[in-house]
Write a structure and sequence with these properties.
- Helices cover about 20% and strands about 40% of the residues.
- It is an alpha+beta fold.
- The strands form 3 sheets. A 6-stranded mixed barrel has the order 1-3-2-6-5-4. Strands 10-7-9-12 form a 4-stranded mixed beta sheet, with no helix packed on it. The chain has a 3-stranded antiparallel beta sheet with strand order 8-13-11, with no helix packed on it.
- Strand 4 and strand 5 form a beta hairpin.
- The termini are far apart.
Length: about 210
């Protein structure tokens, strides 16, 4: 996927009054935080940002152009109006192409596990992991095919396909996906019920 680009302008005015005027004029106030800690106040075209931010995750590096200068950055936070969903403010965090960074990357599973087809139940307890790498090596997401996952089998973080130059920070023994064999559990429950003494069942009814 091609890199998303947002055109921004330097913002001179600050304060709530200035921000309200921007929003009335179709702009969104924003701040881009540099890796050195410096913050630059900018504003963005509201329609362009709203359309461009769709599908962007925390690990997606976008390009912000500010009057001819380009900055690679994460969209770290978007503040929205809780009533109508309008984006009120955006925080970007600039990245340095030569410095390794830590980021959370979403994990997406696909496929119908063999164990589910045999009557098992799929559980997906983990949806993101933390990695460290250079910005150019950062994956937007990690896709995992779980089609071959059988009953009573699991996929762990250590099993995920990470690209070259990507170092895992999250614990490798965390479970990403597992299939529990529900049929065996149901059969055991049924056997336990049938073995229950008749008088105890009558007491339960009374």
């Amino acid at each position: 996927m091609s890199q998303v680009v947002f055109a921004a302008r330097n913002r001179a005015g600050v304060g709530s009054g200035d921000a309200r005027r921007m929003r009335r004029n179709g702009r969104i106030p924003a701040v881009i935080y540099g890796h050195s800690g410096k913050a630059v106040s900018i504003d963005l075209d509201a329609l362009e940002f709203t359309n461009g931010v769709k599908g962007i995750s925390e690990s997606t590096i976008v390009k912000v152009t500010i009057e001819g200068q380009s900055h690679d950055a994460f969209v770290k936070d978007t503040q929205r109006n809780i009533t109508n969903g309008q984006i009120l403010h955006v925080d970007f965090y600039e990245v340095d192409s030569a410095i390794a960074l830590r980021a959370k990357v979403s994990v997406h599973t696909h496929g119908n596990p063999a164990g589910v087809r045999d009557g098992g139940i799929l559980e997906l307890p983990l949806h993101e992991i933390e990695v460290e790498c250079l910005p150019k090596d950062l994956p937007e997401r990690i896709n995992v095919d779980i089609s071959d996952l059988k009953a009573n089998q699991s996929i762990h973080v250590r099993d995920l396909p990470l690209g070259e130059g990507v170092r895992l920070i999250s614990a490798g023994d965390q479970v990403v996906a597992l299939v529990k064999f529900a049929k065996a559990e149901s059969a055991a429950d049924a056997a336990a019920d049938s073995a229950e003494p008749a008088d105890s069942k009558e007491q339960a009814k009374s």
